[in-house]
Structure formats: structure tokens, C-alpha cells
Specification:
Elements (H helix, E strand, L loop, with lengths): L3 E2 L2 H11 L3 E6 L4 H13 L8 E6 L4 H6 L7 E6 L2 E7 L4 H11 L3
Length: 108
Amino acid sequence: MSLQRLNAKSFEEIVYDQGSPCLVIFSRKTCHVCKEVVPILEEMQPDYEGKFGFYYVDVEDEQALYQRFSLKGVPQILFFKDGEFQGKLVGAVDEEKVSDKIMEVGEG
């Protein structure tokens, strides 16, 4: 299952307007580390269906969104709940790190 891709408009709607707990990975097609991290998230996603959202932003297509968060490098996984930034994970991460952060943010 692939992650739902967000653009600036859908990011606003899902992260801020709906305010559901979620993570958004900022990634680039040519990034080798991203190619390792994205499949981990895709594998985890079904376990959190309906409780925690998993989304994807391509930084090459959505540069303004990437710059808005003053991000440096990819991959970066940003966590949100109730429309508020809850923290991030940077670089190569494993399933345990991601699930720990999801538990910290709260599944809903």
C-alpha cells in the first residue's frame, strides 16, 4: 500500500483542518535513504489504519511546503496532532523508532 501523496492544499486540509494524528514524510525520488524509509512506513501503515495517518510529500514537487518547515535534507518524518507539530525523525529510521514516536504523539 503506497502512502497518500500530499500537495500544499491537501496538506492544509488533512493536517490542519482535520487535525487527525498523522505523520508526513518529506522525501525525494532520488534519495537513497528515502528509498529505505518509505517502504518501512508503507509496511506499518495498515496497522494504524483509521487511527494514525501516513502521508508523503515529494520535496521536488512541493518546494514551498518543504521550505515552510525550514527542513534541511531528507528524509524527514514530521508528526502532527490536532493541527500542531509534535516533532520529527530525521534520516534513516527503523520501525521501532517510528512506532515509539506514534505512541508518544498518540493514536487518537
